[in-house]
Structure formats: C-alpha cells, structure tokens
Design a protein that fits this description.
By secondary structure, the protein is mainly beta. It has one domain. Helix content is 7%, strand content 32%. The protein is globular, with a radius of gyration of 15 Å. The chain starts with a strand and ends in a 33-residue tail after the last strand.
Length: 170
C-alpha cells in the first residue's frame, strides 16, 4: 500500500489522516492530509513512507520541503544523498520521509519535530536543497517513526520513499 501526503486548502474527504496546518506567523496554511491507497488521491499529492501517517499522532512542528514547480532533481543526486547522511548522523527527529512523484526524482521531504527538537528544525537537512515551509500541524496526521539503522542509506526499491522500512519494502 502506498502512502500519499499533500498540503491542501480545505479538509479533504476520504483522507486516512488530516489536520489543520498554520504558518509560523499563525496564518492558516491549509490541511496536511495523508492517504493510504495505491493511486494518487489528489493532484499534487506525493508518495511518502507509510509509517509517518498516524491518525492518533500528536501535534508537531514540521519542515516541509518541496521542489519548485518544473524542477526535477534525481533522487541519486549527491545533494539528496548528503541530506540523507545528515539525517542519519544527527539525533533523530520524530519522523523524516522523502516525498516522491515518480521512481527516480526527489520531490521533497517532511521532517517532524516535537518538544525540544523543535528548536533544531531550522537546520533540517533537506531544507538545504529547497526552501522549507515550517508549519505547526495539529494532532491527527503525523506519527513517530524510528530512524533507519545505518549506515546504509540506499532505497531498496526505487518507487519507495526513503527510509521506508527494509529490503523488501517493509
């Protein structure tokens, strides 16, 4: 089963998990929504590690990095690889997943922080690739995911977002 994430304008019908999001200045930013399904649920949704979705998840501060429209960065680009290395080399955030449009291009990432880790979010590794939007997300969409065991950083199926589990897409 694939997982999809999207920041949408209004509460989505049929989402597996969804919660309101606000910008750093408190302005409404829409809804962060996630779906567990095989096909794209809404235009602009991106594939994510399914473990990040949790309808019982606590509120969080997130760094949402999205490739600008028309920009296609290969997932195997050295900048993406270095950002993944930085994720593994530092104390873990509550969750991190890359976001994909297809099997070979990096479309973005979401880094989830809670508590004292919120202070570190300004230095989220994927924010070095493209500008990040820091959003406060209410409870009900994002969970906590243990980081992958290092040092391997390779994806084990090119259609799966990193870190996505194990050798067989687990």
């Amino acid at each position: 089963m694939s997982a999809w994430l999207a920041l949408v304008e209004s509460e989505p019908a049929g989402a597996t998990a969804a919660a309101r999001a606000t910008a750093a200045d408190g302005a409404p930013a829409g809804w962060l929504a996630g779906w567990l399904r095989e096909d794209e649920p809404t235009p602009g949704a991106l594939r994510a590690d399914p473990r990040v979705l949790d309808p019982g998840g606590a509120p969080a501060l997130v760094s949402l990095v999205l490739a600008p429209p028309g920009v296609r960065l290969l997932f195997d680009d050295l900048a993406v690889q270095q950002a993944r290395r930085h994720v593994l080399a530092r104390p873990p955030f509550d969750a991190v997943t890359t976001l994909l449009r297809d099997a070979s291009h990096f479309a973005g990432a979401i880094t989830v922080a809670r508590g004292l880790d919120e202070r570190r979010l300004g230095d989220a590794p994927f924010a070095r690739l493209f500008p990040a939007r820091v959003l406060r997300v209410e409870a009900g969409v994002l969970g906590r995911v243990m980081p992958p065991v290092g040092p391997a950083i390779e994806r084990y199926g090119s259609a799966r977002p990193w870190p996505s589990g194990g050798f067989f897409g687990g």
